[in-house]
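Researcher: Can you fold this with adenosine monophosphate in place?
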Amino acid sequence: MKGKKILIVGSGGREHALAWKIAQSPLCSRLYVAPGNAGTEKWNVPVQANDIQGLLQFAKGEAVDLTVVGPEEPLSLGIVDAFEAEGLTVFGPSEKAASLESSKAFAKAVMKEAQVPTAEYEVFSSLEKARQYIEKKGAPIVIKADGLAAGKGVIVAASQEEALQGLENVMGGAFGAAGQKVVIEEYLEGQEVSLLCFCDGTTALPMVAVQDHKRALDGDRGLNTGGMGTYTPPPFWTKELETEVMNKIALPTLALMRNQGTPFKGVLFLGLMITAHGPKLLEYNVRFGDPETQVILPVLESDLVPILEACTQGRLAETECRWLKDTAICVVMAAPGYPQSYAKGIEISLPAISSSQEMVFHAGTSTSDDGRLVSTGGRVLGVIGRGDSLSSAREKAYSLVRKISFPGAHYRTDIGWQGLSDKSN
Ligand code: AMP
Ligand code: GLY
């Protein structure tokens, strides 16, 4: 069988992890990453992730067999529709199906219609009506800008004053068009967990569950970020919980999307809160998570390529997906100042890595003209440890962090704390 040419779209840690996994597949004869980072250098092509026409020309010109889209922006711009219209095979949802992430109001309407357990909510386009609703409901309460806001359009307000202030910011233009409409919803308490599922429009296969650490500082303090670290599996996660989430959330969503004529293909990412009343859905994302993917792929035993292809061909039900029993943890090393304004161009030096239980996935890195590894983004590196327990995986990741030279790097020292506070670990 002829090997496949595979193109990954994106430049973050998620895309480096995808490239690392796909490069190991005997089915892949040629890999490209557009535009990639210093970690994916040998595969990089200079086309930006949201340049749909540029990517299309490239994929046609090189006769790419499969394109895998990382970030939400090209998906919400319709990259899948554009590629399919040209007869190209692409892993990801259509523009309409991607609205599950690009519009929180659409997502909530789908949850309601599919009877997915979620926080009670209302949608507002009028600042005055939204204000009255907050005054009626009181705090704590959650305000979400409708559109894409790079993970920063959500305000979890502890007091009514904070809620009203947040509302003024969101609707007053801090998020541009994304904030013209807001979703205001009930505050949910519990353990937060991400469950990502491979989907082919009909069938959903769950991946291992992951806990993310969104706040910038130890002890879950400080500003919200794109994610400062992850680990899998959370100790409270069980097969029963997985079955409940699949039956009450993933499968009803897929059925509704299919019945609406917008079947969902790609990764359906469920952001869940495990409450005293069972799992409830906070949000959908329509892609691999970052930094969730950096711990999921190191424990995926199966070849990823046949799974991705099965998703594009509606053959997932007959496809095997095996997982290692291992734990994996990812510690994100960010530029000093992140998530606010941060320095760029910091020189980094990485140690040689000899263990298959340790790895570094690059995110905001590039190689300077004179060949030095330098930082170019906020989240710069994802440092991974894998082991037979959370404490051994954590020990490996943090000992690798200490060997990396990255002046002023900011990272959390408590990734995995929820898991470690559970006695079984
Ligand atoms: P989202 O971008 O929707 O994932 O929201 C960002 C973060 O806000 C989530 O990861 C949660 O920690 C928090 N959050 C969102 N919705 C709620 C809610 N209804 N109750 C409590 N926390 C929430
Ligand atoms: N880590 C959360 C996300 O990818 O949106």
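Model: Folded with adenosine monophosphate in place. The first strand starts at residue 4 and ends at 10.
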